Amino acid sequence: MRAGAAALILACLAMPGTGRSYEPRVNYQLQCMGCHLADGTGQGGRVPSLRGTLVPFSMMSEGREFVVRVPGVAQSTLSDTDTAALLNWMARNLSDERLPADFKDYTASEVQALRSRPLAQVEAVRRELLQRIADARARETGGSSLRPGARNAIPP
Ligand code: HEC
After folding, report:
1. Which of 36, 74, 102, 153 lies at 20 to 30 Å from 126 by C-alpha?
2. For the whole model, what pTM was predicted?
3. Secondary structure (H, E, C), the chain
4. Is the pLDDT of residue 156 over 80?
């Protein structure tokens, strides 16, 4: 019977949107905390901290695309609605950055459109986004950007 039970659990996990719906904090604990830890700080060298990235990524369209397309988000068993609510909760509760006034909440339709194309070159895209944020901040503080022409599309 153990193999049968395991198969049932796997079948449930493999069907997006069929799981029970919980509030975002609980969904985070069930689906994300194992890797990202309770406070979002991650695990050095293996899982990045979300605390300084989620909010700035969310302020750029390419960054939002990255956030929804990373494997942990795109391939979770949560529905599009629960995923959007989860990301909005994380931006407010697991971030060192204050939410900017013009922060736009993630929506179910945005999640649905983006998650269907999971990201292959996660590391490269992530590095590029971090560089663009660093460049923008350097410009804000009067420093000069070494890389003015940033790419504006994320490869598959
Ligand atoms: C198996 C471990 C694991 C699980 C589970 C996981 N993640 Fe991740 N997450 C990662 C890793 C590793 C990265 C860095 C990008 C990559 O390599 O996928 C990441 C990146 C991210 C990012 C982008 C932030 C950044 O700085 O790169 C977000 C947002 C995120 N995860 C949210 C979630 C959410 C929400 C869940 C739960 C629904 C989740 N993750 C579950 C491992 C995980």
Report:
1. 102
2. 0.82
3. CHHHHHHHHHHHHHCCCCCCCCCHHHHHHHHCHHHHCCCCCCECCCECCCCCCHHHHHCCHHHHHHHHHCHHHHCCCCCHHHHHHHHHHHHHHCCCCCCCCCCCCCCHHHHHHHHCCCCCCHHHHHHHHHHHHHHHHHHHCCCCCCCCCCCCCCCC
4. no
Res. 58: pLDDT tops 90: yes
**What structural domains does the chain harbor?**
2-140 (1.10.760.10)
Segment 100-150, tens digit of pLDDT: 999 999 999 999 999 998 888 999 999 999 999 999 999 988 755 454 444
Q: Which ligand 1 atom minimizes the distance to the CA of 126? A: 27
Residues 6+ apart with CB under 8 A from 65: 114, 154
Closest residue (by CA) to atom 24 of ligand 1? 50
Residue with tokens 């949107």: 17
